[in-house]
Amino acid sequence: MAIQLSDRDAMIFRFIEEHQVLLEKHIAWFISLDDKPVLIRDRLRKLFYLDYLLCERHGGKLPWWTTPTKPLVYMLSPMTRQIQNAGDSEFDLSDCNTQRHLLEVANLRMLFLVDQKEGLIGDCNWKTGKKSKIDDHIADALVTFKRNGVMQKVSIINHPTIAAEHIVSIVEQTIQAGNCDAAWIISRDENHQRHLQAALVSTSVAGKVAFTTHQDIYKSGVVKAKWQSSSEQFASVMTETVAEPMSWGMTAPAFT
Q1: Nearest 5°: phi and psi at 106?
Q2: HSE on the CB side for 130, CA within 13 Å?
Q3: Residue 230 to residue 2: CA distance in whole angstroms
Q4: What is the value of pTM for the model shown?
Q5: Helix 24-32 crosses helix 41-49 at what angle (to 10 degrees)?
Q6: Is the pLDDT confidence value at 83 over 90?
Q7: If pLDDT is split at 50, 70 and 90, which confidence band does 233 have?
Q8: How far is CA 209 from the centre of its chain?
Q9: How far is the C-alpha of 17 from the C-alpha of 75, rounded, in Å?
Q10: pLDDT tens-digit series, residues 193-211
Q11: Which of 3, 73, 103, 253 places its Cα 20 to 30 Å from the Cα of 22?
């Protein structure tokens, strides 16, 4: 049974192509932006039944997923990849760890939109990093947004497992290119966060990185999360007044 594809369907395809895998909740938030998330379950099911989308249960455990049933993960079908001129994905999208990383990045994008809907930030613009593998040496996303009338530009690095020198390279390249003013690193647990803080505290980018965990950012949101500097001090990453610069709780070499 053929259907007439709508502009909303095209948006769904573009967002899934950008993130590789998405949950229904992600798609609803991305399409609606800062308005009330739309109801798209029936449409996603129809696109799946008609072979425009692939759909499967995530095979592993996601700590942030609170219902007993494992979440449905949506991906583009080969037919839709051809329609979108997307080419084949270089990720192994059936791998649980790969899916988890990609879904975590999508979660962070959604949480920025939640904060925007609540009026904590505005003019949020997200650009997902084009990776061919999870440990590619590029940021997972570049984000710009306004806080109290001041535009902020940050790169997002999700639970990096690469060596410290590669993280430094990512931060240096994005800042020197003018794509961001700072990097935010989100870890899956506090032990991993402390390991990264210790590895970066004496580097040239120590004053340009801030840290938090997925657990805290899911609980509090992006703006209200407990951000820390490389030296494990409180990091005020949000501009609270127009005249107030970001305070990272430490002095470290700035880029010139």
Answers
A1: -65, -35
A2: 2
A3: 55
A4: 0.90
A5: 120
A6: no
A7: very high
A8: 16
A9: 8
A10: 999 999 999 999 999 999 9
A11: 3
Q: Do you know the residue count of the chain? A: 256
Contacts (Cβ under 8 Å, ≥6 apart) of 94: 56, 59
Residue at token pair 């989100």: 186
- Overall average pLDDT of the 84-110 stretch: 89
Check: CB of residue 233 under 8 Å from CB of residue 247.
no
SS3 at position 66: coil
Q: Which band of pLDDT confidence, cut at 50, 70 and 90, is reported for residue 212?
A: very high
Residue (of 142, 139, 162) closest to 152 by Cα position: 142
Q: Which long-range contacts (CB under 8 A, 24 or more apart) does 197-200 make?
A: 197/228, 197/229, 197/230, 197/231, 197/232, 199/164, 199/167, 200/164, 200/167, 200/168, 200/230
| Nearest CA among 160, 158, 164 for reference residue 143 | 158
CA distances from 60 to 63, 64, 95, 218, 219 (A): 10, 12, 9, 19, 22
Alpha carbon distance 43, 255 (integer Å): 48
